[in-house]
Structure formats: C-alpha cells, structure tokens
C-alpha cells in the first residue's frame, strides 16, 4: 500500500483520550458542581496554588489528580502552563476550565464529533455572565480546548494559548453544542488584574490586545485620564486593526469623557465608534443612551432603530448583554412617548418587557402606557 497511515490514539472503544485541567485556590464551594460537569473526561488534573480551605481534599475525594504548588510571583500564564504539564502525554485533547465554570452534559460526545485528526484547537460557546433573571448576559466563543502538544499559555493575565510547536498549528474546529457556563463568586476580588496587566504591557508593549485590556481596566477603576491615554495609544498601534475592538476602545474613551463631564468629546468618540464598526449594536446603543440623557429624543429613535436593524449577534467577546436585551426597546419606548407617539411607545415597551419579563419598571411602563390609552396621563420611567 502506498502512502502513510495517520494514527490517532484512542481508548478501547475508539474514543479520543480527553483530559480536563485547571488551576484553583480556595474554591471548595464549586468542587462538586465542577467535578459533576467534568466527569465525562478520562482524566481530571488540577494545580492547587495554595488553598487553605477543603478544596484539595474535596477534589481528591471526587477523583481529581491534584498537585499543590504555590506560584510566586503570581502569573496566570505560569500557573496555566504548570497545570498543563500535569496532563499525561497520552492524552489527545486538553480541556482547560476553571472551577467556577460548568460544561453542560453531553459535551464529550459533541467535542469528539467535531475533532479531526491533526486538529489544534476547538472553539465552543461560552456564557461569561448571566443576568439577574438567569437569562444569558455576555456570550462569546472560546478556544481553551486544544491538542496536547505544541501550545503554551502567554501573558501574566488575560492569558491566551500560543503555538510554539514546529510548522503550523492544526486547524481550529467548531464544537457546535458544547456549552461552557461561568458562575463566578461575586465576592472574589479582581485587584490583581491591574498590576498584572501593567506588567503584561511592559513585557510586550507591541501587543495591542493587552493595551486594550489595560485601558479598559483603567475605566473599571475610574482612572479616566489613564483610560483615555492608554486607549488612544491602542488605536494608534499598527497591529490594532480589528474593527470590533477598535470600536470598543472608542466607546470606552467616550465613557471616560462622559464621566469627566465632557459631553461633546463623548459624543464625538461615540460617533467614531459607530463609523468604525457599524455592524455592531454596541456603539449605536451607547450613543442612544447618551442622547437619552441629553433628552434628544429623535436621536434616540434613530440610533436605537439602527441598533435593532442588526439581527446577527457576533461570536466575539466584544458582544455585550445590554444591546441584545431590553435596553434598545426601552429607550425607544421612552423616546416615542416624549415625542407624543403613544402607540409606538406601547409597542416598544411591550417588546422590552418580552425580553425582560421580570423587570418591574418595564412592567410598570407597559401598564402606564396602557392606561394612557384609557385617557390617563402617565409618564414612563
């Protein structure tokens, strides 16, 4: 026979060998839920980085292989790489998750159906946050499933997989149906993020992604001038060409200017964001929100209309929850009311309530507008 045979390692029933690996510290509250969801894997290995609660004991009791090792100085990439070293070489597919994440049942079969010989990574659906009513918030597609060899984690925080093997990495497959949900501990501090991001940018100042993240972190911390300076720097970088992320930087700059009370600058930057990525709902909705605060109702109607005309939700992390929830309809309802168009206001209010049925304010607005039709004169909130 001519040619060469390509063999994939399989177990006795012909499956790929799959290993879940993770890092953790003081997460005993998540152990049982996490182990239940990861039980479809052949192996589960965990690097505990210094728990003082019962995390290690509970993981071992559930069958995880746990190594305890303190990482100092702390870096997420160092910890991830050390945890990946614990994965046996005999494994075909590595699944990196955290203990506050849950894979929905059936993920193993769906992953194997998607995987192909020589594949490098798999992309799958990830719900990063949930709304108070338990509906999905921020949703995007993740790529933390990968082949056993040829990859390493890079960057002290917001770490990503980098190909370090020979030649080119294998293709990324789409694991349709694989769903990972994030249910974090809201009391957990993110205080370490800022110094690690500053370190990451210092180590690799040409990495546009981390400059963007650093500017966003300054926004979260209320450091408006640092946010503006950093994100303007991001926009000037030669490699900062992804329009979605560029538009996000412009929106964050606009938000910082709003917080500084510089409304005209904020409007200008929101308009730039719209021009940069008109295919996204986020810049249209942000600008509509600014005009709502300024009581420029026709502008609110125009920009919410443009947002709602976009019906394809992107698969990237840039996609936020609010523009795909009740907010555009809510703003639209109020703007219709303020311009005397009662029927349109009621229709938009009902559309908003349909997307967020447990929201008491939205329910009240619908009721008020319905009473308006009966001759009363309410004022939607």
Write the layout of secondary structure elements.
Blueprint lengths: L17 E7 L6 H8 L4 E6 L6 H7 L3 E4 L7 H10 L7 E4 L4 E3 L3 H8 L6 E7 L11 E9 L3 E4 L5 E4 L8 E11 L10 H11 L4 H13 L3 H12 L7 H17 L3 H14 L4 H13 L3 H12 L18 H12 L3 H14 L4 H14 L8
Parallel strand pairs: 1-2, 1-4, 2-3, 6-10
Antiparallel strand pairs: 4-7, 5-10, 6-7, 8-9
Helix pairs in contact: 5-6, 6-7, 6-8, 7-8, 8-9, 9-10, 10-11, 10-12, 11-12, 12-13, 13-14
Summarize, please.
With 381 residues, the chain is an alpha/beta fold. It has helices at residues 31-38, 55-61, 76-85, 107-114, 193-203, 208-220, 224-235, 243-259, 263-276, 281-293, 297-308, 327-338, 342-355, 360-373; strands at residues 18-24, 43-48, 65-68, 93-96, 101-103, 121-127, 139-147, 151-154, 160-163, 172-182. The protein has an eight-stranded mixed β-sheet with strand order 3-2-1-4-7-6-10-5, sandwiched between helices.
Describe the structure.
The chain has 381 residues and is of the alpha/beta class. The chain folds into three domains: 18-182, Spore Coat Polysaccharide Biosynthesis Protein SpsA, Chain A (Alpha-Beta Complex); 189-277, Alpha Horseshoe (Serine Threonine Protein Phosphatase 5, Tetratricopeptide repeat); 301-381, Alpha Horseshoe (Serine Threonine Protein Phosphatase 5, Tetratricopeptide repeat). It is built from 14 helices and ten strands. It has an eight-stranded mixed β-sheet, with helices on both faces. Helix 8 (243-259) packs antiparallel against helix 9. The longest helix is centred in the middle third of the chain and has 17 residues, at 243-259. The N and C termini lie far apart (76 Å).
